[in-house]
Amino acid sequence: MFIKNIEIGEIFIPLARPFKTALRTVNNVEDIVIKIETDTGLTGFGEAPPTAVITGDTKGSIVTAVRDFITPAIVGMELDNLDGIFRKLNSCIVKNTSAKAAVDMAIYDLYAKQHNTPLYKLLGGNKNLIETDITISVNPIPEMVADSLDAVDHGFNILKIKVGKEGLKDVERIQAIREAVGPEIKIRVDANQGWNAKQSVQIITAMEDKGLNIELVEQPVTAHDFKGMQYVTSHVTTPILADESVFSAEDAINLIQNGGADLINIKLMKTGGIYNALKICDIAEIYGVECMIGCMLESKLSVSAAAHLAAAKGVITKADLDGPSLCKIDPFTGGPLYEENLIRMNETPGIGIEKVPGFNE
């Protein structure tokens, strides 16, 4: 069985409410989707969001990378030559991690379908239920409190609160949410690179002094400020999660060895897909560092690929896979079931998505 063709499409899904972070505001999921077809007619699907402020990828760059570089490199290759395919995928063009991730997950989808097995089981897992948090966008405090209470009413036990735009005002923001939702709800704080190192220590220490019981703080400083990450991690008690600071296995080793974080957030759009994400998992296991599996602003298609990885790897102990919950509609058929805070893995072959808009309607 060999790769015959790669087709490129696009999806448009409105969000239930605007998604706001320290970096951007988004109203819709407007992602590139791909379909890989083999000579036997078997198909695999992938997705890439244009998250220029984080990965540098735009719609145009994703399409160009897939059409002009990746497709010529891997079309005609035998599907059983999995390692060879991924080596070609990762060497045919530098960076462009979102484009690579879309193709990577489609290859894994095909490979698992070929073996008539759910992807998470093919990757060695047996965890069929995952709990995810849900993101609370940065807004005026009363609106964030209302959104947090609404999330709890819908069954979410873990809230990921976006901050990073107003400095010490974020302490007041988190305190108000904590008082509203009570002590049992887990709160994760995501600054999206919005603070500097000293400011981060001041803000996190203030949260600790107020007893706000924060589970973790994600990416408090800019992505390449490794010394800043190390400074924050060593000066607070709250666990620090590295997100934008870790794209590759090399980044993970550097950060861990230099004490730059307590936890690592793996995202397929940063790593270039499951193949490279597995390398980070292996490194984290060696060093005894737990990981979170996260996503950009993605739909059910690529989030489901990330869920399969999470279900397969024990080192991934936390999930931030709320993309489908943020969308107003679900245009896909098949795949894992998203039941508010729970993701129930599919037992059908591959990632499980059977229908993608624009390809096989």
Which word captures the global form?
Answer: globular
Mean pLDDT: 96
Uncertain stretches:
none
Gyration radius, in Å:
20 Å
Strand order of the largest sheet: 5-6-7-8-9-10-11-12
**How many strand elements?**
16
Strand content: 15-25%
Protein name: Dipeptide epimerase
Binding site for Mg(2+): 190, 218, 243
Pfam families: MR_MLE_C, MR_MLE_N
Keywords: Isomerase, Magnesium, Metal-binding
Give me some keywords for this one.
361 residues; alpha/beta; Enolase-like, domain 1; TIM Barrel; 2 domains; eight-stranded parallel β-sheet; three-stranded antiparallel β-sheet; 39% helix
Description of the structure:
Its cofactor is Mg(2+). Pfam families: MR_MLE_C, MR_MLE_N. Substrate binds at residues 24, 135, 160, 295, 297, 320, 322. Residues 142-239 form the Mandelate racemase/muconate lactonizing enzyme C-terminal domain. This is Dipeptide epimerase. The chain is of the alpha/beta class. It folds into two domains: 3-116, Enolase-like, N-terminal domain (Enolase-like, domain 1); 121-355, Enolase-like C-terminal domain (TIM Barrel). Helix content is 39%, strand content 23%. Strands 5-6-7-8-9-10-11-12 form an eight-stranded parallel beta sheet. Strand 14 and strand 15 form a beta hairpin. The longest helix is centred in the N-terminal third of the chain and has 18 residues, at 97-114. It is globular.
Short description:
The protein has 361 residues and is of the alpha/beta class.
What's the topology here?
Layout: E1 3-20, E2 25-38, E3 43-48, H1 59-74, H2 82-91, H3 97-114, H4 119-122, E4 129-131, E5 134-136, H5 141-153, E6 158-162, H6 169-181, E7 186-190, H7 197-209, E8 214-218, H8 226-235, E9 240-242, H9 249-257, E10 263-266, H10 268-271, H11 274-287, E11 291-293, H12 300-312, E12 316-319, H13 323-326, E13 333-334, E14 337-339, E15 342-344, E16 353-355
Parallel strand pairs: 5-6, 6-7, 7-8, 8-9, 9-10, 10-11, 11-12
Antiparallel strand pairs: 1-2, 2-3, 4-15, 13-16, 14-15
Helix pairs in contact: 1-3, 2-3, 5-6, 6-7, 7-8, 9-11
